[in-house]
């Protein structure tokens, strides 16, 4: 294909502003998906994506479009809008020359609208502003067109008005893409260089690698080489998605398509790597992406210990298609055998645990999410702690915690409530800016550890759902953090240890000791429940002993009644965990962790 007729673009937007619906509409309009095959969110292939209405993996589709008598090939890349998947967004952006900046005409600009816009600008993309959902009665295109034009520095008249749902304005939108988005440039005769922007594991076809050709071309049966590892694979199939895979005779400059080599693991075909040929290798790789790093860790345990092998296999399978998933085995006194899993963020955590539950039928419990701490001990050694149980005892010189730069957008009436929340989470205000008439952006530095618990829920409830949040890593800082342990009769219960700010240690201790007191049944003896920092007890409760022996009632009575009672107790013990001498039903631990 001649690069002059190629247009590579993506759609960027805040979550729920209608990217996927608009993408579907385009597939329909350009005829690549027939009426018969059309279903909502054609591109959101995973069940979870469809149910939650969010996009997790990017998708690239090629569509034909005629404009002023010329036939163009439009490559559209749908991107996920959520913060956890920013790394997917930035890859997709690097494969494009233009971006549709989509904004809900009833909502206006939100936190991820800005975050995605900045990413697009960093990639030098041509930006086309679009207001979507203009069919909604609550839509206020005039107001928000002004807001959007202000933001990107343009004329409100140039903002396109569309509805992905009804199709209004979508043809004009495709015309605008053809007109405004620059054609790709590259050297047709140079050695091949293709950038991998996505790699997906498919049970039937193995790894499918999505690439954007930058220079030269690739053909079927060629020996391709990954520039980072020098590994050579035979190219079994090459083609374009439209949106079903369609094998082709090759890909050349500017084209977006897929490669299949028969490798079985996405890590062998790494996102950000450059593909060349072994016969005529390129000298220099394209600028790569930074590897996504896990930010949040949680222990994940099967509720039924015998499911452990299933959990392990399930994680191995998910890893094939999710290069960002990291895990290693872990054991816990309270919860048995499980895995410590590193996630990109809370949504990633939620999605992985839900896929484990759903696709592998596992009953799971996850410990409270923790971030990565750097702890320097008295002997000047620094260790990385992702699990509170690894927090060193003894004297500590310094603890460093990750911080993020958070942007919160909300109507101005909520500024007070948001500031209060951020302050209680140790946030520092960096700045404040008004967009349009009534919308404010607040920028904060906040410890990530203060966000991972329930920050977003609180933010939503304090703003009646109107606030939106985006954040990016902003290094780390020293903080007065301590580990709080929870002890049952003097024995530490590992799953409940937490690393918290010293000022919040007492509140955490009281909360957990009270919770456990409610949940743990009485024993033959009194059981003290304590919260401690090192050797210092900061909170305590106790479970009183059972006053009468249950068997005493049966003393001298019917022997069969006595046996029945014993059997009943035995059954109840099935999922008992021993913490020292104390018997605790696993359900109690689970309930205490989930805060029910
Ligand atoms: P995404 O998260 O940006 O991919 O958004 P979706 O395409 O999943 O859309 C989010 C919600 O908005 C869904 O309930 C859609 O049905 C709805 N929606 C999307 N586009 C339109 C539109 O043009 N008009 C109306 N009324 N609703 C829309
Ligand atoms: Mg979507």
UniProtKB/TrEMBL annotation:
Bilayer topology: Peripheral membrane protein
Xref: CDD domains: EF4_II (cd03699), EF4_III (cd16260), LepA (cd01890), lepA_C (cd03709)
One matching Pfam family: GTP_EFTU_D2
Record keyword Transferase present: no
Gene Ontology CC annotation, any one: plasma membrane
Binding site for GTP: 16-21, 132-135
Gene Ontology biological process terms, A to Z: positive regulation of translation
Compartment(s) of residence: Cell membrane
Keywords: Cell membrane, GTP-binding, Hydrolase, Membrane, Nucleotide-binding, Protein biosynthesis
Name of the protein in question: Elongation factor 4
Organism: Lysinibacter cavernae
Taxonomic lineage from the root: Bacteria, Bacillati, Actinomycetota, Actinomycetes, Micrococcales
Gene behind this protein: lepA
